[in-house]
């Protein structure tokens, strides 16, 4: 290139499918987020503990947000596309058409969501086998993983779903298939939710022992027998049909995907913290814990050697950062629990009216209300008499007990706005104490964690962040780019484009602020 001439900009698109909405971002070659769009997605709860979605609805939302973020951009400069998503189970027939995952036979609802707890009897039987693959999911399989859900479909929807099924995808892999026509699965989803081993592959004896020998018989063609590392480029890239849907050019690189929490982890865990006086500056990356807080919270810690932490998922090899083992702690409902407590309170209508009058979100209003009522004392002291046990949807980590329930102690007869604000605070504190409980379990097993890196919707709530810092006693680092999960998805697209050597070289996208 002749002197003074600027290299053309290169752009990457990241698409993040959360529980409640789909988001997209356009990111430039320095990792700066230039455009953002989001779109809600539909959810159904036909029975208690049954949670379903539609893969067609989700894909349509991906198309809406992608078209929005690339508006006004020369499409030739878009080099790569990456997806992340919740680890929900998508079911398609042999011609790739949606199949119903419900008794009603509604094939539009062909996704069993990650938080669906219908397969309790199945997961109990799986855990009774004490099979060796369970060592790599914290010792106990979660009802939120795929094996119990598959067994449920076989036992409950044999004719309408199981016998007709041709493809079972984790949602992140469904999206990369939809974009490219390539059915290869990401190592991330298969290792974390399907018992696949990065070193040994599938374990035939496990599937035979739990009654899903069908997969072994057809060489795992329905659940994936071609596995790629996250960020690997998928064959010929975007198909002409998907390009039309998404408003992009055919042939651009599409990456093997990540689960959403793992994209968030990738987006923040390697952040450049130099010059911020943080304890982790002189420490290895293994001293950092990425906490991705949305509907749920996921606690991602990495290590050079495998660490077995009872009740904490993993150790998973190369599932998030290549070459590192991952342990994934989690709280199944955090944002969802806060929303549940606040929206179910008698003073919620009053809160809505007052927040709207001040043009504030309900959470910004509650935070300022707590500041008002705390007077001279630290805000945390408002809850000396009120306590929440946050396992309203069971305990994912470290107790790994889906039967646990939530609890509130210290209730009075009054139900005014002060009570709502204090209940909200107690809920946030309970969630932060849950994070501390997980960190203690990880440290007892050999992790050495000094610093938390938060991202996800709840990291936009200063009270949530402050309580995590106060209760864990650790500094909490926030990326200057609040949409870190999307940065993680865009890292995948950038890696697939070949413009960067590996996902590790992109870790330093993003700068930090100390909380
Ligand atoms: N600005 C904010 N202040 C407080 N809470 C927020 C804010 N933005 C999002 N949240 C909360 O974060 C949760 C959703 O986070 P998000 O990362 O969007 O979830 P998901 O990826 O599961 O769809 C919700 O419970 C919501 O109430
Ligand atoms: O199981 C998980 C990751 O392993 C996540 O909790 C699940 O994917 C939902 O994520 P989110 O709270 O961001 O919607």
Automatic annotation (TrEMBL):
Keyword Ion transport carried by entry: no
GO cellular component: cytoplasm
Residue span, Carbohydrate kinase FGGY C-terminal domain: 289-496
Gene3D superfamilies xref list: 1.20.58.2240, 3.30.420.40
Domain of life of the native organism: Eukaryota
InterPro entries cross-referenced by the UniProt entry: ATPase_NBD, Carb_kinase_FGGY, FGGY_C, FGGY_N, FGGY_RbtK-like
Name of the molecule in the record: FGGY carbohydrate kinase domain-containing protein
Organism of this sequence: Nomascus leucogenys
């Amino acid at each position: 290139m002749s002197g003074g001439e600027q290299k053309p900009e290169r752009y990457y698109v990241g698409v993040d499918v959360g529980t409640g909405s789909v988001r997209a971002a356009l990111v430039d070659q320095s990792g700066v987020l230039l455009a953002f769009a989001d779109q809600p997605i539909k959810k159904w709860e036909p029975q208690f503990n049954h949670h379903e979605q539609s893969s067609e609805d989700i894909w349509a939302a991906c198309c809406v947000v992608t078209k929005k973020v690339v508006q006004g951009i020369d499409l030739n400069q878009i080099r790569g596309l990456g997806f992340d998503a919740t680890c929900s189970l998508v079911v398609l027939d042999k011609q790739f058409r949606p199949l119903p995952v419900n008794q009603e036979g509604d094939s539009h609802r062909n996704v069993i969501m990650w938080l669906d707890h219908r397969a309790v009897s199945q997961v109990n039987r799986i855990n009774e086998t004490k099979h060796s693959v369970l060592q790599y999911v914290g010792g106990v399989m979660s009802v939120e993983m795929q094996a119990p859900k598959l067994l449920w479909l076989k036992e409950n929807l044999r004719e309408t779903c199981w016998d007709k099924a041709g493809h079972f995808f984790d949602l992140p892999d469904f999206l990369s298939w939809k974009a490219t026509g390539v059915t290869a699965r990401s190592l991330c989803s298969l290792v974390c939710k399907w018992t696949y081993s990065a070193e040994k592959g599938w374990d035939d004896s496990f599937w035979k022992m739990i009654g899903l020998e069908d997969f072994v018989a057809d060489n795992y063609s329905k659940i994936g027998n071609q596995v790629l590392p996250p960020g690997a480029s998928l064959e010929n890239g975007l198909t002409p049909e998907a390009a039309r849907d998404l408003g992009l050019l055919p042939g651009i690189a599409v990456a093997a995907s990540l689960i959403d929490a793992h994209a968030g982890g990738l987006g923040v865990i390697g952040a450049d913290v130099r010059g911020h006086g943080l304890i982790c500056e002189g420490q290895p990356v293994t001293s950092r814990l990425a906490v991705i807080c949305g509907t749920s919270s996921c606690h991602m810690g990495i290590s050079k050697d495998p660490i077995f932490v009872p009740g904490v998922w993993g150790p998973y090899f190369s599932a998030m950062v290549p070459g590192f083992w991952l342990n994934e702690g989690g709280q199944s409902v955090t944002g969802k629990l806060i929303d549940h407590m606040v929206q179910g309170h008698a003073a919620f209508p009053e809160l809505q009216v007052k927040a709207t009058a001040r043009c504030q979100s309900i959470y910004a209003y509650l935070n300022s209300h707590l500041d008002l009522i705390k007077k001279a004392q630290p805000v945390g002291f408002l809850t000396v008499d009120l306590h929440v046990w946050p396992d309203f949807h069971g305990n994912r980590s470290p107790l790994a007990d889906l039967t646990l329930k939530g609890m509130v102690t210290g209730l009075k007869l009054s139900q005014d706005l002060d009570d709502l604000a204090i209940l909200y605070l107690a809920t946030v504190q309970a969630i932060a104490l849950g994070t501390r409980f997980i960190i203690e379990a990880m440290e007892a097993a050999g992790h050495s964690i000094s610093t938390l890196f938060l991202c996800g919707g709840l990291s936009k709530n200063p009270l949530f962040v402050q309580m995590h810092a106060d209760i864990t006693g650790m500094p909490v680092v926030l990326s200057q780019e609040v949409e870190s999960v999307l940065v993680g998805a865009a890292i995948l697209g950038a890696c697939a484009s070949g413009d960067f050597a590996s996902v590790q070289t992109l870790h330093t996208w993003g700068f930090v602020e100390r909380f």
